[in-house]
UniProtKB/TrEMBL annotation:
Molecular function in Gene Ontology: iron ion binding; oxidoreductase activity
Protein name: Sterol-4alpha-methyl oxidase 1-1
Transmembrane intervals: 35-59
Keyword Cell inner membrane: no
Alphabetically ordered keywords of this record: Membrane, Transmembrane, Transmembrane helix
């Protein structure tokens, strides 16, 4: 809740006129509690989990020749009932774990200094904080993800997420409840280290989940804007991790690829791409005939 009753009071406090964005924020948030504003995250996550994967569902169901060539694992196809079951499982976990976790974590956001007041942060400030959040989350997530691929972590927790060896958008948040708690830590660390405005927190949570859905989409579209982001993994990169499954000691990155490169955990993927290029050169038409990305047999990957 803003400590101003009128725009005039806010103007006097800032010593200048409010921008259009600040005027909108004042009109929307002035009489709403900080807790109410924070709880918007629950609505945003529900809408993102429900709506963002839908175009991918339609593409998957249509499986037209126009889009089939972008399917990473073209021989794997899920029915509408299978995808709806995945969505129901995600929503069950959302109601039982994600939503309550968001509600319970409000005091920690106040403690670290997430604020709702005026002035609003500049675009540059928001962008710089989002970059910091992504970098911190990516590095921390990398090591926790590697832990979850240990014998105990995988068998007890992470194998649930890997039930989808050919992931779909709805499967991005599909996981064991304990994994949701563990991998929620990296998402919170960035805002804890560099706290900002509530709007920045909203954007961070929304963008991180949209990115996760994109990397689990199962499609490698050439027009995806994220292709222009340096060191960005993307759908093809993460799809390989799911394809190899429990054996995977490769491509642990959540967003960027630099940790996998530095610590040598992208060797299997690079070997896979090398063999793929060789097979395409020898056959001349593997990709054109089958569509999508051709995967090297798992036995070959084990011998690497």
């Amino acid at each position: 809740m803003l400590p101003f009753n009128t725009i005039e009071e806010a103007t006097t406090f800032l010593g200048r006129n409010l921008t259009r964005a600040e005027t909108w924020w004042f009109n929307y948030s002035a009489k709403k509690s900080d807790y109410y504003l924070y709880c918007h995250n629950i609505l945003f996550l529900f809408l993102i989990f429900s709506l963002v994967p839908l175009p991918l569902v339609f593409v998957e169901l249509m499986r037209s020749l126009r889009f089939n060539k972008y399917k990473i694992q073209p021989k794997v196809s899920l029915t509408s009932s299978e995808m709806f079951k995945c969505y129901k499982d995600v929503m069950r976990m959302f109601v039982l774990v994600v939503g309550p976790l968001q509600l319970a974590s409000y005091p920690s956001t106040k403690m670290i200094g997430i604020h709702t007041g005026l002035p609003l942060p500049s675009v540059w400030e928001i962008l710089s904080q989002l970059v910091v959040y992504f970098m911190i989350e990516d590095y921390t997530n990398y090591w926790l993800h590697r832990f979850l691929h240990g014998k105990w972590g995988y068998e007890k927790i992470h194998r649930v997420h890997h039930e989808y060896t050919a992931p779909i958008g709805f499967a991005a948040p599909y996981a064991h409840w304990l994994e949701i708690l563990i991998l929620g830590i990296p998402s919170f660390l960035g805002p804890a280290i560099a706290p900002g405005h509530m709007i920045t927190l909203w954007l961070w949570i929304a963008l991180r989940q949209i990115e996760a859905i994109e990397t689990h989409s199962g499609f490698d579209f050439p027009w995806t804007p994220t292709r222009f982001i340096p060191f960005y993994g993307g759908a093809d990169y993460h799809d390989y991790h799911h394809y190899v499954g429990g054996q995977s000691q490769s491509n642990f990155a959540s967003v960027f690829t630099y940790c996998d490169y530095i610590y040598g955990t992208d060797k299997g993927y690079r070997y896979h791409k090398k063999v793929l290029r060789k097979l395409k050169e020898e056959s001349g038409a593997i990709g054109a005939q089958s569509g999508g990305t051709y995967y090297v047999p798992t036995q070959e990957l084990k011998s690497e």
